[in-house]
Structure formats: structure tokens, C-alpha cells
Amino acid sequence: MFRLILKRLLLLIPVLIGVTFLVFAILSLAPGDPVLVVLGDNATEEAAEAMRSELGLDKPFLERYVNYIWDLLHGDFGKSYKTKLSVSDQILSRFPNTILLALSSMLIALLFGIPLGILSAKKQYTLLDNVASVGGLISVSMPNFWLGLLLVILFALKLRWLPSQGMSEGTGPMLKSLILPAVTLGTGIMATIMRMTRSSVLETMRQDYVSTARAKGISESQVTTGHMLKNALIPIITSAGLQFGHLLGGSMLTETVFSWPGVGRYMLDAIKTKDTPAVLGSVILMSVSFSVVNLLVDILYAFVDPRIKSQYKKHGKKSALRAKKQEA
Amino acid sequence: MSDILKIEDLVIQYDTDSGCVHALNGLSLTLREGETLGLVGETGAGKTTLARSIMGLIQCPPGKIVSGKILYRGEDLLTMKEKHRQSIRGKEISMIFQDPMTSLNPVTTVGDQIAEAVMAHEKIGKKQAWEKALEMLETVGISRERASDYPHQFSGGMKQRVIIAIALVLNPKILLADEPTTALDVTIQVQVLDTIQALRKKLDMSMILITHDLGIVAQTCEQVAIIYGGEVVEYADVFTIFENRMHPYTQGLFNSIPKLNEDVNRLVPIEGLMPDPTNLPTGCKFCTRCQHATDRCREEHPEMIDVGNGHLVRCFRAENTNAGGEQK
What we know:
The complex is a heterodimer of chains A (about 325) and B (about 325). Chain A has about 325 residues and is mainly α. Chain A has helices at about 1-30, 35-40, 45-55, 60-75, 85-120, 125-140, 145-160, 170-205, 210-215, 220-250, 250-255, 265-270, 275-305, 305-315, 315-325. Chain A has a single domain, classed as MetI-like (MetI-like fold, Orthogonal Bundle). Chain B contains eleven helices and twelve strands. Chain B has helices spanning about 45-55, 80-90, 110-120, 125-140, 155-170, 185-205, 215-220, 240-245, 250-255, 295-300, 315-320, and strands spanning about 5-15, 20-30, 35-40, 65-70, 75, 95, 175-180, 205-210, 225-230, 230-235, 305, 310-315. The interface of A and B includes residues 208, 230 and 304 of A.
């Protein structure tokens, strides 16, 4: 198990090199000049030139990239072109807000998605199942920003129950301002998890060991949770883990709609101004959190399924991945 | 010996896309206390449906119990409350399933799976339930240290022993064994059958053994019921079935066993196939494959005829053999 974790963490290095290079290249190739964005279109040629050399933008692409990586190895994420503030400080101060939003929307999604999925599997083809299926389809297809705006119109503008924007000070008001963005983000994920739970439980329902369990004379709820759900968990964990990885990278649209001070919004602002160090910092955070969550999911598998655990023990990573593929 | 289980005119159908499957068509059967009854028939004859209906494990829908009674010590299992039935299931009547590879929950230790059955029916703590489970494991020939292992760590024969342990841990009065050895090697078959037989005698159970292996019937059963097209076509004690079988289907079954004392080049099968269960013949169910079939067989459904000594045959030809016998 320890070797698995170590290997996966080492794998992060090539991932990060690839990701930063791609982002660096895209931002360099894209039209627009960050210096002009910062100084404004009316800036003099001299001022622009001075700023370019100050930021090192007059050097060739590869040299700039190597310099960036060199600084990165020393723990320096650079300074924002625009605000001249340290990128790592800026991101770290926003990251807790993103984590808070990610956790609460995930909580909503799991709390409603799993029970609804089980219910719809057990009552397959009934009215309840159909309603849940259609509802799920609608929730998945609805773009986040649109759902967010609808919720704002209803709960903030019409009913005036909840604040429409920002993150309020103090625990109570803060939680209140968290509700709308969390619900907006959680709805789509809930629908995905619900569908996944439904199909996974339907699959386990037909297994022979469920008959064995019933034949013992235990109650139907024990059969459902102890035998069906326990075996149905792997795909649910996989999809929930992927979603959570995405959420930790910051959800640009939702954070923008609700002016939530998170990493996603920071990155969107940085992209708009071609603020390369800021974009790179956010992207690195996104990739690392995504990889770490996936690693955690793989470790979680071992606790859910003893067959996977024994694979980890025996041969390490490769066969474990193979086992996972077979599971999928 | 008194009757412990009496099945009267049981009719079970499955609603499927390709039509209504007539699984059981007025099946009647009696199991006496302490007796082993062999249930023999081809795949699709309705053997497993019968066993599952006694356990109350028919999925409704698509299954439908149209009419009939299953009397356990005079009480109808089909009309009693689910709660009451649950208390009988696993405690008084247990079942061993066909495929040991898939009949155990892969993510729970075998000890837990046995203890779960104990705790479902007896008000004792987890520790005592485990102690009972460990004893039972030893009874079926598995050392108690292995109780905390998972099913994937056992071989097929050992898994079947675990399933036997689950079924017998509460000393049930009736054991339904649904082809308990079909999925096992011949050498393991003997061991498993011996285990079941020894425990049956020790615990003084009645047993219904479902099989299509006539050798196992000769070895273990006292009474035999031959099932075809969802009804019993011949019922007698095991000696009568082997020496003096009368139904053409039973005769066909025995003819298809290769004889050891003759040179046999080809097996002698029963001509034709099982009739489509969505479209069974109106008369005798076997008339489409019977070489003695007459017009009467094709139009009129034969009743069970008692030819003496409790030997029942569902064939018009038996009427002649038994001039004085009464119709039953």
C-alpha cells in the first residue's frame, strides 16, 4: 500500500511538467499582450517595453518556461502580472473557500443522490423511478450558471431569503451565503451519483448472494444496505471521486455567478488578463488536487472491496489497476 | 411419519416480454418428516421455481403466484404475514443454492455471513453469534481460523461448505438443496454430499434435493418426484423409480444414462426439446416427445393415477396397468 502511494505521488511529476508546459504554450501563443492589458491600450511604447523586460517577457518562450520551472522547484510560484501579489499567497487564501464549497456541494449530492438512487432501483419502472430519472436528466443537462441564476432570481430577488452574491462574514451569514452556490453545484453531481447508484444497485440486486442473504430471513433493509449497497459502492465511489476532484480545482462558472472568492474565479480572472503565473498556479493546484483525490479513491477501494486489497498487497500498482479495470 | 410440508396445486407464472411463462402448473407434492425427497427434471422444468417459492424468494414482478398452497405444518406460507414468514425463512426452512461461486457476498467475511443468519433469528450478541458461526464452520470441516477470510480466499467446494453452514447454523427442519453439487468437481461432489447427508441425519432434518443427476438420487433419496413442464409426472420411492418406473419421460431419462455393462457408442437421448414454457401443450405436457402419444394425450390432460404402494403416475397408459386403482 505504501509503495502504491509513493509511486502515485512520483507520477505527479511528469503530469505537472506536461500540464504546465501546455498551459504556458497556450498562453504564449494566444493573441493579446498581457502588458497592454495591464497598462491599458494608451500606454507608451517605452513604458510597455520597460514592463516587458521587468516581467521577463522579452526573453524567448523556452527560456521563460525553464525559468518558471526553476523558480517553481524553489517553491516560488511567481507574482501576478497585474496585481504584483504573490500567486501562492493569493491561491492559498482562496483555496479554503473552494474546499468549503466543494465539500458542501458533495455532501448535498451524496446525501440525496445515494438514497434516491437506491429507491429508484428498488422501485424500478414505477412512477417514482420515472420521476427520478427525468428529474436527474434535467439536473444533469441544466448548465450550472443558468441554474445558479434561476436560484438567485427565486431565493435572493423574489423571496429575499438568501444573499445572491459573495461570501458573508461570520459563521451564520457565511453558511447562508454558501447555500445557493452549494445547491447549484451539487444538483448536477447529485443526478450523476443517483444514476450511478441506481444502475449499480440494479446490477447487484440480481446477484445470487442477495438471494442467499434473503434466505437467511434478515429484513429487506438489511439486505439492501448490507448486501446490495456494499457491493454497489465501487462505481459510486469512482464517480463521486472524479466529481470531487473537479470541484477542488474550483468551479469557475458557479464561483463567478455567485462572486464566490474561490480558486476558480481567480483563475478565470487571470485567464482574461493573460496573467500567466496566476493561471499556472491555479492549474497546478487543480492537477495536484485531482491526482490526490484519485489516489484517495484508489485507497478507498481497498477498504470497500477485500479482493482489491489483496491485489494491492500482492503485486502493487499494476495489478491493482488491472483489477480496477475489470471491476469497471 | 407426518407431513411436514405439503404443496397443493401450486401455479406460478412469469410475465416476460415474450409472453407468460408457465413455470409451475398445478404442482402438488408432500414431504414427510425426516425424509429426503429427490426432485428430478430437466433444466426449465420448474425445480428451482418450486424451491424459491417455498422460501418466498420469487421476485414479484415478473413472478406471480397464481394459485395453490404451501403448507408448512398446516400453515399456509403463501398467505401468512411477511414478518411471520421471515421468521420461518432461514430458521425453519433453509436453502442451499446452486452456484457456490456467486452465492456468497464477496465483500463480507464468511464468519459475518454465517453470524448474520444467527442474529436474524436469535436475540444474542455479535460475540455469541460468532461463536456459533465458528462451531458451524468446524462442523462442515473448515477450521475456525478462516472465519475472518473473504469468499475469494476459498475454493469452490469450501464455498459450498460455507453456504451449507449458513443454511444449517440454526438447525432448520427442512433443507432445500438446489443442485448443491452441479457446479463442483466430481471428487468434491462426494465430499459435499457426504457432509450434507451426515448433518441431515445429525440434525434430523427433512430435505428436498433438487438435481438432474440420477446417481445422486439413488445414493441419497428415499422418495423421488419426477418433474416435467411444471408438474409432477411420477412419484414413488427410490426403489420403485429405479426398478419399475412407468412414465415414458422417466423411462427416457433412465435410457439416456449410458450403461457400464454394455458397449455404448452413442447416448440415447429423449427425442425433441422441452416444450416452450410460454406455449405448453393442452393435453399431456410430454405428448410432443412421447413415442406412445395418442390423440387423447394431445387433447386431454392426464391426472395422477395411483398404481399401488404410493406410486403415482401421470400417464393414461397407467390406467390399463392398474385396473383396480382409484384415480387421485
